[in-house]
Design goal:
Elements: H1 19-33, E1 39-42, E2 48-51, H2 53-58, H3 74-80, H4 91-109, H5 114-124, H6 127-144, E3 155-159, E4 167-174, H7 178-182, E5 186-193
Antiparallel strand pairs: 1-2, 1-5, 3-4, 4-5
Helix pairs in contact: 4-6
């Protein structure tokens, strides 16, 4: 069974109506928890439907946040949690920008999705992030091409709380079976890799930062 926030076992958060689909998700949760790498399932709004214990371990030291815990909504965690950079290395360019690019496509495709619209409103409330989203992001997307929207296959830096991993990298592997895809869900696994270069863990942000304020500072435009 996959874990939820606080390490307590529970059923998947977004259960479909069909009993057969519910049973499938219960069994799929057991499959996830048998994996040693962090693996999780999200819906189109990036609500975390299932997450295994390795996923919980990776994010176990992040502080509380009312709306942006990784086992609640991974998109919100990347964009809005002040501790995201303590786990996600090179947080701004390697994690925020790809997530913003993917979000831009999703919110355009599913314009009536209340969760996505809520994220857009929160982006708009932060002048720096809003400017990055509206002005800097299009330049970055043009420079990156189709790769800007693709998570599968990307290699990104991580800071794992387990010293056996420490400052390392992960390859994001998207492997969504047909039954899961038909439910509107996507599975991502962070395949941890041995560290290839020394790196110091980032300084933990001050706890007194007001909740919900983003830490995205700049979007570099491509050089001419």
């Amino acid at each position: 069974m996959a874990y939820q926030a606080g390490g307590q076992r529970s059923a998947p958060r977004s259960l479909p109506a069909s009993r057969e689909a519910q049973a499938y998700l219960q069994d799929y949760a057991a499959l996830l928890d048998a994996l040693s790498f962090p693996s999780f399932v999200v819906d189109r709004s990036w609500d975390t439907v299932l997450a295994n214990s390795a996923f919980e371990t990776l994010f176990r030291e992040v502080g509380p946040h009312p709306t942006a815990m990784p086992w609640d909504n991974f998109l919100r965690f990347v964009l809005f949690h002040p501790d995201a950079g303590t786990v996600l290395g090179d947080h701004e360019t390697q994690w925020c920008l790809p997530m913003l690019a993917h979000f831009a496509v999703s919110v355009e495709r599913h314009s009536h999705d209340h969760q996505l619209q809520s994220v857009r409103r929160d982006i708009a409330q932060d002048p720096i992030m809003d400017a990055a989203f509206r002005q800097g992001l299009p330049h970055w997307i043009r420079a990156m091409g189709e790769y800007a929207f693709e998570h599968d296959g990307s290699v990104r830096p991580l800071f794992h709380p387990d010293p056996r991993w420490g400052a390392t990298e992960c390859r994001i592997v998207g492997e969504t079976p047909r039954a899961l895809r038909e439910l509107g869900f996507t599975r991502l696994t962070l395949v941890l890799r041995e560290a290839r270069r020394p790196a110091a863990a980032p300084r933990r942000p001050a706890r007194e930062r007001r909740a919900g304020v983003s830490h995205l500072s700049v979007v570099r435009t491509p050089e001419n």
